[in-house]
Alpha glucuronidase N-terminal domain-containing protein
Amino acid sequence: MSRDVSIAFVCCLIGAGVLNASPVVVPSTDSGTVIEVAFPVKQTVQEMTALQVLTEESGKRGRVTWSSESGRLNADHFQPYVVVLAQRDQVEQVLPQSLVGTWRDHLLRLHPSNAAEAFTIVTLPWKDKAKTGIVQVISGNDVRGELFGVGWLLRHMSFEGGTVQLPQSPEIFSAPDKPIRGHQIGYRFKNNTYDAWTLGQFEQHIRDLAIFGTNTLQLISPVSDDNPLSPLMPAPPLETFLGISRLLDQYGLRCDLYYPEMRKDYSDPAQFQAELKDFEALVRRMSRVDSVHIPGGDPGHTPPEILFPLAAAEVRIIRKYHPSAAVWISAQGFDAEQYESFYTLLGSGQDWLTGVFFGPQSRDGMEIQRKRVPGRYSMEFYPDIAHVMHAQFPVPGWDPVFALTEGREPICPRPMAFSRIYKDFQDLNGGFITYSEGVNDDVNKILWSQLGWMPGTPIDTILGEYARWFLHREGEQLGQAVALIEGLEQDWDGPLLENRQIAKTFELTRHLEDSSNTAQSQGNWQWESLLYRGYYDMYLQRKFAREQSAQHEAEHALVSGGRSASRVKIAERSLNESKPGVEEQREHDELFKLGEKLYDDIGLQLSVKLYGASNWERGANLDRVDTPLNDRAWMRAAMAKAEAQPTETAKISALEAIANWQMPVSGALYDDLGSPAHESHFVRGEGWQKDPEMYHTAIDGIADRTLEDGWRLSWLSYAEALYEEPLDLEYKDLDPSKNYRVRLTYAGEDYAVPLTLTAGDVVIHSSRLRQSNPETYEFELPKEAIVNGTLHLRWMRGTPGGGGGGRGRQVAEVWLLPQLAATAVKSN
């Protein structure tokens, strides 16, 4: 049999998988260079699929003619460049007899283990009379090992100037560190991409992930915490779901079923039995199920004493059809009492259960769970790599303007953060399946897959392979592409207006954009997504600077003298005349062009109105490009209220209060909680480096509103702490001779939990719910609250032991006001 795919072929010697600077160029003709790929006579579907991946994926990137031959190579069909693809124990069936001894010598030097999914790559010189050639052997310890060996080869090919540099390593043996390296796929309305995909697009995604060492895809059950249908779906949900399962079987990859229990009450026997019936109807039709993950919550709400019997019954069903399926369960969403029940049930012995997985909304951290879960149960990691706020691993100190606009689910390459997180947790788990909601986290998926294979791999190496494979960059451009990805992560460090990295990243973005050829740019969604983020960051910095300047001018007008009407007129003019410059407008327009390309090329839904996203929070941040970035809506309402005052004196006083919001009296101390640049008295706790999940670190957040709603930005942003962790402010060097009042703004999400507030040892208010959103609360500070010039304000959860995500204790603003009067007062 033969197969033709056109490419030019270049061989280069490498050491330890790194391309040599002086490759050996293999001569080629106008029609390309012929490379023979040889394999054993008997091939499984999975082995033939690995062969297709090699020939088809390289063929998309260059010019080569692959000729295929099954059985033993011989001199009568001598080719100067040959790739052998086989399992290790089959290699000698394919090699020329003259090379068998050399092959064995390489194995003796390498001492390859029998680890599952491992592969060996060696290069053997082939001489026949006057002819010389090279035989490169890709041997897998098993079928997956062959596929991952092919992936290694493809990742190390480079495509530059119409040629392909094929790495030729004398001897490499590579085995994965983690046995489970997976990512989640949800073909559902909530997803920001996958609901628009065909099975062909899913197959390409599976290939790309496998090339980087992914061995597991987790499929969310067609019934989950979502609408059953999406208007973007090209095929019915169940049809596509089952099709993906078939594809994974074809590729020999693990298929995991994520199965939340969504009925209302499983203590009802009818609901219990109905769930089992639905479960059986699903799993009996799946081509492959290697494991099932059943979350306790997020989504789900079933207490452990009911969840365990239900899961055990489902295990009995699935093993009728998939006898080797592993079963995992989580404690997500449980409250403190339910956690104790969970641990007790595990301790009593659950022979049907493989292990416990740890994911978002877990009140006990992974280290605690690993200590309390009996050792006979393995633990897996279910990290959220898609979200950057209201999330398991929020971006620390994120500027509220980014949070307001780019939102919870943006394009979010975080190589440095997630490499740190991976290493922090790697000793606590035996593998991972990441939580994802589309392609916004594409770089993060590749990073996790590669770290799961070899945790010591340098980040630049992983990003370099990403840039070579997906962005088609080589040489100097490859290094620039790596710097661009890293720069996008650094764009989010610190206050938006002070971040000089944003301009540097954007300059690099424009340089690579201008120097891109058609192959690099046309239809390349990975490249388009990086462009989109680079443009968005730069656009926000320009727009925020301009709109804040307009607000400052308007505030200055309100305190600059003259009659109230004149002050308002000048302030309104400052707000109204602020218009984008040429560069800001260009960046604005480019975002919409890129949004359209990303939808057309990959189905990424960056807008609810334009592209059918399920919600703006689900990655649709194109809908926030035009949102105001200053307080003009609030200011206009406040100015109108001021002008309605009965006297000119009252009008001017009210206008000046608008401008002096942060400093209502001389010597006031103000914290805009949620804005890292303006919360100097905020006690952060352990900090992100030690505590990436923020269990013991206060968090900056933002409400799901916009400034068009008439809120101030200082109300939108807030600080919070999780579960029973205190939320603290600390003031030092206070004047003990002064009296103080404290003014608070309680604001944030529309839901809230009861809070207690203490000042030192003095209880200011016991457990209470916010009365409105926002709510102003003001009180006279008791003298005894200040000790040796120091004041501690502390908010605690009013009802300890809660479950879920542990959020809801949100404080937006705090003033410490000297020499204010008397009685405690609360006002809305």
Summary: The first strand starts at residue 10 and ends at 15.
